[in-house]
Specification:
Shape: elongated
Largest sheet: 5 strands, mixed
Strand order of the largest sheet: 2-9-8-4-5
Number of strands: 35
């Protein structure tokens, strides 16, 4: 009440300050003299408002005109006061200059022939009008002061201010002519007060003026309203109700400010809207989304614009449907469930938006979307989300405590996060390269060596020749395009990928005898398990980076879990490979021996039979020993060929590993064979060491 009384008193003071300053031009008029009179006022009038006063020697009624020789009856001006011998007229908004009024008087019967010419000079010092950028009362802060002088002044006017009417502080001004500006700083420590201005300026004639015609006083109120207490938020269907306690009358509150955020820790940056003073200290927020949780704080604002401290934070969830006490989860906990359902629904909206966006892509981006099979990931995420939402909705019908509910909801939130990790939001396309493969006989031999264990040189040459013949006759050709890219997922995580896409063309090919063998190369990947996705059926051959496809395959796509060096792409070899059975050449001994007409009584025949048996037995063991040695030699030659291919391709580490095996094989060879291959083994070792 004290605060209100001070402000009311201040308003009365401001109203009283509007009284107009007046000057007086007084003249004596002898109406009985019979002669015209001329009178001059010795002292100039220093106010734009003045009283023209005429004193006569007898009671008369006077009139005036500003035009000379105007008859009494035609004089346009009448006095405000015509009482006996005193006559007064208020003159407003006078300007600098000399004024002449012609005055005539008469009584009821007698008209005076005497005319008074009343002359006076108006010389008004400069005055000022002051306006502030904000209305009264002023709160703590900085306010613009605009000072307008009544006339052009010699220099910058002097303006000072006071919050107590005793001590004044200068207020610097800037401007020109009649318009001047400055800034008033109101400290928070002022509290409630009546402020005042003091003004002084010299006009071009050197007259000093210090009158403030308007705006000389202003009200100050820097006291913040009290903090709102008992601030609560309650979730209802499609709305949230806010309740609080505050005595608006005693605290001079004009309105409330409401702050809202989707996240905790609401502050002044989260301004939502103004709330007019309600009769019940409550507000219903209908601008909400079902299932979404909102966080609120509120402050009070007084007439001066002072804002109180923010209330405690309160939050609630706009429920998806009407609450029911029929059973299951307590009604106050329904909002927690709805909030998670809302979170899942928002993720669903994001996924559908991403889905629509991808399907509208064109060109390479659309092609990569299909190659990566991202639609499968999106549909899988939507399916998981549907199932999760159904599970979450069932929590409302369960008889569980809040602790148990929180555990379930935490688990649901983790699943939502996991789903977001699977959803590709954006594809950033990197560098890309395309080339056509050229296949030669060495490429075919290299593949043959790695195709199976213990393949002979004859079979290598046979299959390589057949394959090269088919490649040329069918026009077998492959074009490989590799693209590096980055996938950004819905949760913000990133993953690098490489798409290797191979186009295959051939004509008049007998597919039953051939397959397509694909050697990816260790420079690209070290093991087939690194490949995330291969389009089409395939099987692994001997080595983990060699795969086999049917001969009618027209397109092969690999998805790799990293970006690759596109310079290594030529290491990928696609070969048309001859698959039909291989029939080796016949051995030197292929027949059998028989004896005829042996009867036991013919010793010569019996002896001959024994000799034949002994010969055949010895020859068998000779061939067996020689065959073992031959197989060792074949394996040794195969290993030499593999090492040479590795060195040719720059695969030094692989060549070195194979050489260790070669060295062991060398030791098991017969002495005569060791001598024959010694120089070749040393040559290989020298080349490996030189790399």
């Amino acid at each position: 009440m004290i605060r209100l009384s001070i402000l009311s008193l201040s308003i009365l003071i401001l109203l009283s300050a509007s009284t107009l300053a007046m000057g007086t031009a007084s003249f004596e008029y002898n109406t009985s003299s019979g002669n015209s009179q001329i009178s001059y006022l010795a002292t100039p009038i220093d106010s734009p408002n003045a009283i023209l006063q005429v004193i006569t020697e007898r009671p008369v009624v006077c009139r005036y005109s500003i035009i000379q020789n105007t008859p009494y009856d035609l004089m346009e001006g009448s006095f405000d006061l015509n009482l006996g011998t005193l006559h007064k007229k208020t003159l407003l908004n006078l300007l600098d200059g000399i004024y002449t009024f012609y005055i005539g008087c008469r009584n009821n019967t007698d008209l005076s022939n005497t005319i008074l010419s009343a002359n006076f000079n108006v010389a008004i010092p400069a005055s000022a009008q002051i306006t502030l950028s904000d209305n009264h009362p002023l709160r703590a802060g900085v306010f613009e002061v605009v000072l307008t002088t009544s006339k052009i002044v010699q220099a910058v006017p002097s303006l000072s201010y006071s919050f107590n009417g005793v001590s004044f502080s200068p207020l610097p001004l800037f401007g020109a002519g009649t318009l001047w500006r400055g800034y008033l700083i109101v400290p928070a420590s002022v509290g409630t007060a009546v402020g005042s201005f003091s003004f002084s300026a010299l006009d071009l004639e050197g007259r000093q003026g210090n009158q403030i015609t308007s705006g000389s006083l202003f009200l100050v109120d820097t006291i913040k309203p009290e903090t709102i207490v008992n601030f609560e938020a309650n979730g209802l269907q499609s709305r949230i109700e806010l309740d609080w306690h505050y005595n608006n009358i005693l605290n001079g509150v004009k309105y409330f400010k409401l702050y809202r955020s989707d996240n905790p820790s609401v502050d002044y940056s989260n301004y939502y809207k103004d709330v007019e003073i309600p009769s019940t200290n409550s507000f219903i927020d209908t601008s909400v989304d079902k299932g979404k949780t909102y966080y609120y704080r509120m402050s009070a604002v007084d007439e001066a614009g002072n804002e109180g401290d923010l209330s405690i934070e309160s939050f609630a969830t706009a429920l998806i449907e009407n609450n029911s006490n029929s059973g299951g989860l307590p009604v106050p906990l329904h909002g927690l469930v709805d909030a998670v359902i809302r979170q899942a629904e928002m993720v669903r909206e994001d996924i559908n938006s991403i889905k629509d966006s991808f399907y509208s892509k064109e060109g390479l981006e659309k092609e990569l979307f299909s190659d990566l099979m991202l639609s499968r990931d999106i549909e899988s995420a939507l399916s998981e989300l549907n199932a999760l939402q159904k599970d979450i909705s069932k929590y409302k019908s369960e008889y569980i405590t809040q602790t148990e509910l929180n555990k379930k909801l935490d688990s649901a939130n983790l699943k939502i996060s996991s789903i977001k990790k699977k959803v590709p939001e954006t594809i950033i396309i990197g560098d890309s390269k395309e080339f056509k493969q050229q296949i030669n006989l060495d490429d075919l031999r290299s593949l043959a060596i790695f195709s199976k264990e213990g393949i002979s040189e004859d079979e290598i040459e046979y299959r390589s020749s057949k394959s090269l013949e088919a490649i040329k006759s069918s026009g077998f050709e492959t074009t490989l395009k590799s693209t590096n890219l980055e996938i950004i997922y819905l949760d913000g995580s990133r993953a690098h990928r490489a798409v290797m896409k191979e186009k295959i063309s051939s004509n008049n090919l007998d597919g039953s005898n051939f397959s397509i063998a694909e050697s990816i190369g260790e420079e690209v990947i070290s093991h087939s398990s690194e490949i995330l996705l291969i389009h089409g059926d395939y099987k692994l051959i001997k080595e983990d980076t060699i795969l086999s496809f049917s001969s009618d395959k027209k397109e092969i796509i690999y998805i790799l879990p990293k970006n690759i060096d596109l310079k290594t792409i030529p290491k990928v070899k696609s070969i048309l490979w001859y698959e039909s059975a291989y029939i080796p050449k016949k051995s030197l001994i292929s027949g059998y021996a028989t004896l005829y007409n042996f009867d036991g009584t013919d010793f010569k025949k019996f002896f001959l039979f024994v000799l034949v048996i002994l010969f055949l037995t010895g020859y068998y063991f000779y061939l067996r020993s020689n065959r073992s040695s031959t197989n060792d030699c074949v394996k040794f030659k195969e290993m030499v060929s593999k090492i040479k291919i590795h060195l040719k391709n720059g695969e030094v580490s692989l060549a070195r590993n194979k050489y260790n095996e070669l060295s062991s094989m060398y030791k098991s060879l017969p002495k005569n064979i060791q001598k024959g291959v010694y120089d070749e083994v040393q040559s290989i070792l020298s080349e490996i060491n030189s790399r």
